[in-house]
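Checklist before submission:
- one chain only
- standard amino acids only
- sequence pasted in full

Submission:
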Amino acid sequence: MSTGAPKTGSGGALGGISSWSIRNPIPTIVLFLALTLAGLAGYARLKQNNTPDMDLPAVSVTITYAGASPAELETQVAREVEDAVAGLGNVKHVDSTLTEGQATIRVEFNMGIDVDRATEDVRNAVSRVRANLPASVEDPVVQRVDATDSAILTYVVDAPAMAPDALSWFVDNDVARAVLAASGVSKIERSGGVEAEVRVHLDPDRLFSYGVSATEISQKLKTWSTDQPGGRVTLSGGEQSIRTLSSAARVEDLANARIALDDGRTLRLSDVARVEKSWAEPRQRARLDGKEVVGFSVYRSVGSSEVAVAHTARAALKALEAAHPDVTIREVTSSTDWVEEGFEAAIEALWIGALLSVAVVWLFLRDTRATLISAAALPLSLIPTFAVMHLLNQTLNNITLLAIALVVGILVDDAIVEIENIVR
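Returned file contents:
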């Protein structure tokens, strides 16, 4: 009579682990208690977002050219930048969006590239063609395209006692400082409102009497009010950059400014013009319930939690509103409310599924021991997952919650089948 060799393999190995765990229950219990505690700690630290943070392989270049038409931007700006970035490696697409006074060039790269390196390459390419762009364009803004580039909170600000320009400045200055100081806030964007400006109304009769033209006065004003790079200078053995600055601090200073004419004469600006503080024609308007308002949107930074950022931003705005009783700050929209509701609904569905699986085991097997085993197996399998998610820097979002719900469904099905087989 011959005997076969002992069987080995995955089944034997798993059987050995099960047999060892049954003979030595204490280490097994300690292990799962440790995993459960680690899972609970990881769960408390997990961030809640709508979607996971992703490194999109795209970089945007924004160039402002005040007063330029889309046709001018295409020929003088967009084509220069497109030709400069088209030669970079791993470029997939280059597209441009042109509006009055602004050009946005979006460079999309192939998947798998280092986005930070690609951003630096685009910045260097744009710098090389900067001299080919019109002199009056503003410095190009190069930044990576983030998946989080959507507002999480939107507010409107109402202050009947404030003029439109004062209210707009309040949002740009006071509100921006308060909100940006909150952890996780990347930027705020104002919608509606006006931009303060100084208007110079030239008097044709006075211009004629002084023998000067409006073009000459305009050129002198541009020369007098400037902010330009002045090169570099060596001071105390170190090299520093300098800038040429010249401007008026007040409207009265501008009105009293002396302008030197080409023939050697000088005159005050108030001799030929009336200078007043005003605001520019609004380029965009914000309305709420038919009333024109000034609004702003709050954006979160990459790697932060939408829910946590919303809570800190709300607290900062509440404190700011308390410090300014004449100002009302009203929340209009929030993407975090349904993020929290979706998270709570997903967790509730997980618990309901676990309870129903335990009820099914008890209903069909009528075995207390089997029921307790299934009741303990589900949370002991699920909770340690949160520790792994925290270590991998994952967040609780629609994708991860869907994956957990799917796996729990498989786990419940397998648990019922295995327990039934054990009882049989």
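Reviewer check: The mean pLDDT is 80.
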